[in-house]
Amino acid sequence: MPSDRLRIVIGLASALGLAVLLAHPRVKSLEQRLGVTVLISAGVPFIAMGAIFSHDGVGILTPQVLLDLQPAFEFGLGWVGFVVGLHFDVRKLDALPASLGPVIVLESVVPMLTTAGLCAMALLGMGVPWDGNAFARDALVLAACAAPSAPISMELWERRVGRKAARMIDEVTSLDEVTGLVVLGVVAILFRPDELATRWTLPPSAWLLVTLGLGGVLGILTYVLLRGARNAAEELTLLLGAVALSAGVAGYLALSVPVVCAIAGALLANLPIRDLEGLKKTLLDVERPIYLIFLLVVGATWRPLEWQGWLLATAFVLARVAGKRLGAIWSKRVGPKDLPSARMLAIALAPQSPSSIVFMVSAATLYHGYGPERVRWAIDAVIIGGVLTEVVVRILEWRRRRVGADLTPIPPVYPSDGPNREAAQAPVISPEGGT
């Protein structure tokens, strides 16, 4: 009916306008000052809005509308994949301390192992039947969601641990997303969906080559297109087309869309592109509204009243936070001497990255039609887990302040523009023993 179509158009247009508004630099600046993630500040409201829009009495995100939005949904997955891939710049990695590599590995792998183990036990406790392939697949997907940490607020953490330590933590948070995508790619290769959805029937080794080759070809194609851009508007237009093509081809072959697009983005980051920093800024500026609309669609399938999701979320949070803490303890032993204390490092890396929800939903769309209850529980676990983790981090910070460990030491006082300004910005020794 025309009235139904009008309601759907007005509802989706209003949501898109709100997403663009919440992507304003002032909103991002406020988040950084408060030290909260986009999931807490704007993500949860959009998930709740999606749940409301899907209600029968509202009728905006109906099953048919969600089916029609599938290409846009995959486009959002591809855009996030490109952003993650651009972080994998080999020239940037060469400039990092050699001892920071084990820190990135520990802070990614240890939480994945603890999450896979505890969540597997939780699924068994909920009565999920043991099925070797499906059980291993679900555990690996949840493990991939546990690896990435939310980007830190540099302004806040420079005051807490010093500039050098804050920059190292920031590098860890930008690279642990790559680890999660690697696991997601392994899952997509080893555990293929139904043959009717894959278009081809190939062995896992062939699917690995297809994934790597497709991502490489799409990255080179994107590079060739962007070289012809004469201004920022043309660059954005060509980038939109490249991401849409990459996501569409990966989705058609039933490959993991963010993984293929991340490979393309990583190749693009290491080619001699004219303005790589400008390209990154364009991707990050557009990522926020795309991510919020993505969460709106996710909210339409969210079932927060299912107790299984809450139980799995509790196991997910406990395992992930414990894994980050254990990884921080070992990282302090093998990492650079300028790292903050293990407890401070664990607090910095505990908040869950918004990409975790993208990873989870990407796997859910890849294996659609199989175990819908388990898929819903896993999505609930990652969404609820992100909020619960933020609460746990705030409690840990409050407890440390209670015992007298000031997390925000007073910054040094120096003349506003005097010649000794740089000397006055010498690192401050925090109560944790870091700089």
Automatic annotation (TrEMBL):
InterPro entries in alphabetical order: Na+/solute_symporter_sf (IPR038770)
Region (Disordered): 411-435
Keyword Acetylation applies: no
Transmembrane segments: 6-22, 34-53, 73-90, 102-128, 205-226, 238-269, 307-323, 344-369, 375-393
UniProt keyword Ligase present: no
Keywords, alphabetical: Membrane, Transmembrane, Transmembrane helix
Stated name of the protein: Cation/H+ exchanger domain-containing protein
Species annotation: Polyangium spumosum
